[in-house]
Amino acid sequence: MENDQFTLLAVHAHPDDESIGTGGILAKYASLGVKTVVVYGTRGEEGDILNPEFVAPGPDMPMENIRGSELENALKVLGVSKHFCLGYRDSGMVGTPANENPASFNRADLEEATAKLVDIIREIRPHVLVTYNERGGYGHPDHVMTHRVTVLAFDKSGDPGYKGFDNGNAWQPSKLYYTATPLERIKKRFQMAIDRGEKPRMNPEFLGTPEHLITTVIDVSQFIPTKFEALACHTSQMGPNSFFRQLPPDQIADYFGHEYYVCAKGCLGPEGKETDLFEGIR
Ligand SMILES: [Zn+2]
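That is the input. Now the predicted structure with zinc ion docked in place:
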């Protein structure tokens, strides 16, 4: 069975990562008739309520339920047709006690997690997969794990000899991408923070990707309002210190008009930059 409809699968760690990292492409490709699907490793149980104006929809609501309902709203805004959770526990930020929880994603059995993702890939048959780079974008243990599981699942899914949890038909996605932020942009942002008297805690080289390694630049300028609407759905997570709330309005178009990716597998080659994740497949 082929998959007649082009399908994009984004594999993330927590609710809100879909909007922060890939909100532009999810909204854009859904509007172009591509089926968009999101997989999460965890339900974001370790998230803090970062927004003092946040009012929980119900008394004593567990964090995963709060984030689950925020997620449903965001996915509706982005036009995502389906989502799955691998069912692990949020590992929390690096170095926190939640890292040690045996149910946490960063402690998951890599083969088991891969088999779960392969089952999903074989069910929905995506052409393009998007996830984080080997540094998990910014080093969060769940983001690093998301990367490891997705890279393995990308290869195993197309292997008819790999059974995973079911005996489903093998499906080989055509391309695998990693999200990227241009290094120069991070350096600029850090310089602005230093000028304000702040001390950035991270190394820009760790967070950013040098220009020559970025293979793919997607124009999502028409979808900035949709991306921000989706971000706003994650009310509990969008505190006053959030970068998205602090960025001066005149910089929003420049900052969010494009999303940047590194093609890791199935790439077309070095000639110029791709402007479409489905380039070469269409
Ligand atoms: Zn995350």
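The CA atoms of residues 110 and 149 lie 7 Å apart.
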